[in-house]
Design brief:
- By secondary structure, the protein is of the alpha/beta class.
- It has seven helices and 16 strands.
- The longest helix is centred in the middle third of the chain and has 17 residues.
- The two termini are about 20 Å apart.
Length: about 350
């Protein structure tokens, strides 16, 4: 919540501060600008700094929301706020699908599950995101992978569904880890994992770089004018560590494999650490939201785990980030069941 003692003159001092010190690259506005004397300022950053002159310290971004809350507060003080005209894309509706009780299913039943998900939520969303390794193959045969993708594409076409389905494919016992983007028009993009875990190094066939093509496809896909980057699981940690510059994308789509039970002999997985240092870290690094999906293995889905993350803590460390600091809010939640499978759908608008 914005303190109501931030006044017009405090905002003027914040503007002066930004004129003298500049606007940090990770605090630039993506959707709205406040205009003053012909210059453009990020509304949320203006309010954060204005608080220094009314209450003695910069207001932390996680305490209040950008967009409507920040814009209306500044407009109430008499300042002009306008949409970012350079953002020519439309808003996109994103559905992140977190799965439970799916790990024993074979490819046919998984495809049946996918078609059920398309039937239930496809018309409402521009993109549906499923976990990494959603389909698994014994060998790496690009033509087989394309045939399976074309089957999904044909189903989307039959159902007259214009959504973009993003799902993962693993081959050769996880040596090949891919993310695919498929629409009714066919395959739109493929991305190969470029950042292996310590245990995978020397085992998986990794992409040569963050932007390497795979089977003739790029990993950056267009979704209603929004440039989306296809990441596979630990790639978000790679974005934080080696991908210092945004490669020209508006969002990151990260397909995560699974979270095992705590203390599992298969290796325990911490969805909290993944959200903090992986998703939030990638959002911080590229100053854009990250949308993710995963499968919870032999355990219930963590109901508060954020599948959409937007960093808004400036230069602070990701170890300080908590779920409360996340400014990406869920628009709608829906739980689906298909036979034994459970699908938790969290919808976002961006």
């Amino acid at each position: 919540m914005i303190p109501n003692n931030i006044l017009y003159n405090h905002v003027l001092k914040a503007i002066q501060y930004l004129d003298e010190n500049g606007i940090p690259s990770n605090r630039q506005s993506t959707k709205y600008y406040m205009i003053y004397s012909g210059r453009y300022y990020p509304p949320k950053l203006v309010i954060s700094i204005s608080n220094k002159y009314s209450n003695g310290e910069e207001l932390q971004p996680g305490i209040f929301s950008g967009g409507k809350e920040a814009n209306e507060y500044l407009q109430g003080l008499g300042f002009e706020v306008i949409p970012n005209s350079s953002d020519e894309r439309s808003f996109i509706n994103v559905a992140t699908c977190v799965l439970q009780n799916v790990y024993k299913l074979g490819n046919k039943k998984r495809k049946d599950l996918l078609k059920y998900i398309i039937d239930e939520i496809g018309s409402e969303h521009d993109v549906i995101i499923l976990p990494a390794g959603f389909l698994k193959f014994e060998y790496f045969e690009p033509e087989v992978i394309k045939d399976e993708a074309n089957d999904i594409s044909e189903y989307l076409d039959i159902m007259e569904c214009r959504t973009n389905v993003c799902y993962g494919v693993d081959c050769r016992d996880n040596m090949d880890q891919l993310a695919l983007s498929v629409t009714s028009e066919g395959i739109k993009g493929i991305g190969r994992k470029f950042f292996p875990t310590d245990g995978e190094k020397g085992y998986i066939d990794a992409a040569g770089s963050l932007v390497s093509e795979e089977s003739g496809y790029t990993r950056i896909v267009d979704i209603k004018g929004c440039k989306a980057y296809l990441a596979v699981c630990y790639d978000v940690f790679g974005i934080k560590k080696i991908g210092k510059e945004n490669v020209g994308v508006d969002i990151i789509i990260d397909l995560i494999h699974k979270f095992n039970p705590k203390g599992s002999s298969d290796g325990g997985s911490s969805e909290v650490l993944f959200a903090r240092h992986g998703l939030a870290g990638a959002s911080k690094g590229w100053n854009c939201p990250v949308f993710a999906s995963a499968e919870f293995i032999r355990r219930n889905i963590s109901q508060d785990w954020p599948t959409g993350v937007m960093w808004d803590l400036g230069d602070r460390s990701t170890k300080d980030w908590t779920y409360r600091d996340n400014t990406m809010k869920v628009k709608k939640e829906k739980n689906l069941t298909y036979k034994s499978a459970i699908v938790n759908v969290l919808s976002y608008e961006w």
